[in-house]
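Data availability (excerpt). The following record was deposited with the supplementary files.
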Amino acid sequence: MNPAAASVTPTNTRLCKHCLTPFEFKRKTAEFCCDTCRKAYKRQQQRSIKKKRLYRAESSPFFTFLAQECKRAGTIQVLQGHTLESLLELHEVYALRLRGNLLGSVNKYSVCHIFPVSHPTHIGMLHAGNLVVGLKEHNQNHGNKLLGNAGMSIPRVRLLPKWRVDEEEPIKTIADRIVEYLGGELVAQLAVKAKLQPSRRQVLTMWLQSCPDERIPPQEKLAEMTTQQLSQLQSQIKDGKESGFDISSRAACIEPEDMALRELRRLARYRPELLKLEEVFAGYAAEVIAYVNRLGGYPHIPKELRQLQFEVLHGACVHDFLRELERIRDAEREAFKPKVWSAAEMEEFDRSLPF
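Predicted structure:
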């Protein structure tokens, strides 16, 4: 054996993770042939992550909702001025409507504009401060009325042709334009913070998060599961005899009085005067919830209450609400007031008896 050959030690080499060029490494943890490749690989990974997040956002039900609202308004500029915080607040409104409608099982609630979309000189914006989750029938009857000075709007003269949305424009195209309008970085952050997922996955995840079954893993584990695995888990729970959970059960519903209370507290961020009504709203909501959960008797709710709640959340005067509610209560007290008979009436009644 050649002594010179015996003294040669094998070179430690591996392929660069970015350019795939063999390089000699000194540390076992080395992955790149140079610092340039390391930085280039990091940028590539960041672009890949951002692309995945944008896909999750664009294909999510939330962005479908945004696209539909922009199409209805005829412009993407109804999203003007949004930040990450305001978009999360808007997602909160969207999610509340979804829960109120039992993830699509019913069509009881709709997202209503405080400042209407159809207005001669202005257009209502798609911001949480301009939206209310309310009963669909009330929203349809309300139409394009404007109550008070509440809500948010943008003058029509400021609308740019670039952001106009045609009636025939596909939802997917509108969603892409929304990303362009808001900015990719903002949308990518929103996808993370709001945990946006493609349509079916989003519905499955929300269903499982609402389910009290012990077989549901923590939220971190749900995020790691595939859509097929989530679907299989849902099927197992629905078919399982030991689970009494039913997403369409009455116990899962959000009653209108409870919904009004939730929206009152949320809208109080923008209209602090609404907090004057919190005690009134909470009282009626507590009565209804107690009755639904069989913890109380039949709630005594004025039939006009829901309409009054709808109007005050849409900008009607708080004092007008209190005054009208007091009038209703006075009328009810008068209607149920025990009748006091006079002596003449008693005598007339006695004469009318057949014995």
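Summary of structural features: The two ends are 140 Å apart (CA to CA).
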